[in-house]
Amino acid sequence: MSDKIWIAFGCDSCFAPHVSATIASIVRRTPAHKLHFLIMHNGISESQRKMTQSVAPAAEFTWIDMADFELPEYKVSNHISQATLFRLGLEKLAPEACKRLIYLDADLIVLSDLQELWDFDMKGAAIGAVADAYLSSGIDEVHQHWREWISGADAQYMNAGVMLIDMELVRQTQSFSKALEKIALHGADLPYQDQDAINWIHQNNWIQIPTEWNVQRVHLLEIFERHFSLESMEAAQRPKIVHFTGPEKPWTFEGYHPWWWTYWDALAGTPFFGTARKSLGVSRTKLLHIWLRWLRKRPLSKLGIGNLPSALWKP
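The chain above was modelled as a monomer; its predicted structure follows.
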């Protein structure tokens, strides 16, 4: 296996600050010289790239412009953009040297050393992932469309926002190309587009990784506790990756998420912080409020974050 940990993202220019925050959270816990970031993008400027790379100067970066990559028709919504399909380009665009890869959405924060996830035994599966907390748990009985093509009482539907991928197997089976074909043929019937297609193609070829590697918002809501195992509930209290699924993003302030603070704390370690804070109209008072709410649930000392985080005073 490569001595580098390959980490991939797919995003457009609007998400450049969020990718940088995720990268900042990663290099706090995994030595940057071990990392190779592969960023598939559309419209990220040269200046934004330099700003992003400054967050992890000891890491390697590969930027892939997706402007000319042919994508099938897709449905755009508040949660699905063109960029979400970029991950399916990994089969053809990832360098041959990349044998294994961690794919991450850009709306999450990493709170543990990714070396542990990298070393996970996939037991011959193409993908390692966590079940989707909303769609697999039975919380929403309406959105069970995936059961039309995934059978079995114990069947699970993965959340594709965190995936450990065997790139050699994906290339051999052309499974991501097949997922793109599914979207082209059945896109109107796939409300979650690429995630649906990935589940459809890999329904018998993925393995569950520990839940703490993709703690989703639904895991954190007490009203839904009865739908989850004890392992999932414990994982929600000690996440290794916090995934801001749904519309409750830390930069929108819609609803509330108890781990919002971790995003702003990570963003403060990037050149995007000041501009992002001002453009969103986020005052220091607002950040202090988020920090104090988070402190009540999660003492900062447990995560090794200083007592006076820079996000509270940085311009």
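Residues 284-297 form the longest helix (14 residues).
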